[in-house]
Amino acid sequence: MLRNSFSRFFLHFFPLPRFFRAPSFGLDISDESIKYAELLDTRVGTKMGRFGERAIPPGIIESGKIRDSTRLQSILANLGKEVGIQSVRISLPEEQVYLFKLKLEKTGLKNVRESIELVLEEHVPIAAPDAIFDYEIIGEDSQYLELEVGTIPKVVVENYLLIFKNSGLQVQSCELEAQAIARAVVPKGDTGTYMIVDFGKKRTGIFIASHEMVVFTSTLDIGGISLDEAIAKTFNATLEEAEKMKQEHGLERNTTNREMFSVLLNSVSVLRDEIEKHYIYWHTHKDEEGHANPPIKKILLVGGDSNLIGLTDYLSLSMKMPVELANVWVNIDSAEHYVPEIPLQRSIAFAAALGLALGDYE
Asked: Of the residues 25, 101, 226, 275, which has the maximum number of CB atoms within 10 A of its CB?
């Protein structure tokens, strides 16, 4: 599903004063796994504390919808006890969120939220009483307020909150994954425009961040598992063997890797085409006033499958623009003074979890 507009969309539940700040835990939930990361205040600045990942068996969460609340609750409860987590900032499933721009005339405007609620059903397929929404003012003149509105079915949020409550974990806030990732990888104070590609196991998110806000997002049903399946089919291997072959060889273009390169190129080129399509859309699309979007400065890759050997070079050469693995430590102020325990290559899979944890430091 393509979502044309995206802003900082926060649903804050049970906020804590900063002077009571405990260790900040970000918890990134997907259909396949839960990733968590902790940030700590130390004498030398903010440092990464505990981190890890728990697999979610198939059938528990599908496209962001909870299908088996009992099993998910058990996973979360065990995670909380094993790691010692009490409160968390969590990501909301992007697949369930609707985003749109809205102009409200100032004349007669008394309550922005009530005005949004009156027109909500014109923009999203959710009845107003069944929706939770938030907004941000992105423009204003003497006549109008321009807003970006994010909406999610109330039942989705309530289900997540109830499961966390029953598992013994307090939810400090819910936030869209795209904004959390952008907070982690776009340098604070950088007003440039970046495309962020989150290349995961089963899906890929494409986000555009400009002036430190995510303004565009799209989710694709393309992931690293499709590469594994192509390798397994070609070389008559198991998925586990295919994953290992993918990690060892990647897009190395040499004599011994010729067949592997060809197999991977067929799959990766599909991803490249989608990235290029969104890149072209961004640079050719104009807003309602006819203004062009600012040019994309760079493409940043995150997600566990972004580590594929040769991927950044292939995308950079084929798209003729800078493409690089994102630095998830760029906004963690002590990163220059110590080496985190997590390997650098693995860290980009924790971009969302780290970005969620950084929410306590804004």
From this structure: 25
